[in-house]
Amino acid sequence: MSQAAVEMLAQIADRAIEERKQLLVALSGGSTPKRLFQILSRSPFAQNLPWEKMHFFWCDERLVPPDHPESNFGQAKEWLFSQVSIPEGNLHRIRGELTPAQAVEEYRRVLESFSDGMQEWPRFDLAYLGLGADGHTASLFPGAITPEEEVFPALAVTADYQGRPAGRVTLTPLAFSSARNLIFLVSGKDKAHAVYQTLHGEKDLEQWPAQRIQPLDGKVTWLLDDQAAS
Ligand code: 6PG
Question: pLDDT tens digits for 55-87?
């Protein structure tokens, strides 16, 4: 599953760099992307990908400092970015050490600086998303959709999930809807129900937040292991 996700990235990178001279990718946290990070950090990808033309953003971040074990940026740095030759300036992390309001404001400014002119955020070439057993994706959790979610590309939210840090900043469906490619990476039996409901259940955007992500003309791919697909 992770190998396929990396090979898709390599293809998307070739095309994006040929057409637009850079690749814009948004990463998720949690346990699932670790294997993906490991594969990217090793031969042949570590040597062959054009890291200096690749810019990384985060789909969401927990509000903890970057060296905290629960930091999504910290995890990606440990497993991937500390092992490849990428300019520090290409890593556009959400600053989890700030207050929620400051972290969101600053991230919105970062997003705006990569705007393609059509909207106040970048058109991501690729966003990797996970799925929680409760159906959340990025930090879009089950519950009422706030008006802010429909206006801003990034928001601060609070949500308890498996004892992970509750204060978070997340991209919203608006930001994902303009992405060129979205890849959901989902593994494990505990996700099977959420996968089924998201893809085949009744439309219920409050209960199954991943249903809120409907790209305008981008491509959505679900990469599942056997158990999540069961
Ligand atoms: C986070 C995430 C989150 C994650 C899911 C799945 O910061 O926690 O970005 O949306 O993708 O919770 O997490 P697992 O891969 O650990 O199951």
Answer: 999 999 999 999 999 999 999 999 999 999 999
User: Can you tell me the distance from the alpha carbon of 210 to that of 24, in angstroms, rounded to the nearest whole number?
Assistant: 21
For 169-204, write each residue's pLDDT tens digit. 999 999 999 999 999 999 999 999 999 999 999 999
CA distances from 19 to 16, 23, 80, 125, 128 (A): 5, 10, 26, 11, 21
The pTM is what? Answer: 0.97
- Asked whether 53 and 21 are in contact (CB, 8 A), the reply is yes
Query: Residue 97 C-alpha to ligand 1 middle, in angstroms?
Result: 19
Instruction: Report whether residue 72 contacts ligand 1, using a CB cutoff of 6 Å.
Output: yes
3-class DSSP assignment, residue 148: helix
Residue 88, classified by CB atoms within 10 Å of its CB into exposed (0-12), middle (13-18) or buried (19+), is exposed
Rounded distance from Cα 117 to ligand 1 centre (Å): 30
Evaluate: CB of 60 within 6 angstroms of ligand 1.
yes
Please give the number of the atom of ligand 1 that sits closest to the Cα of 33: 15
Please tell me the residue having the least CA distance from ligand 1 atom 11.
130
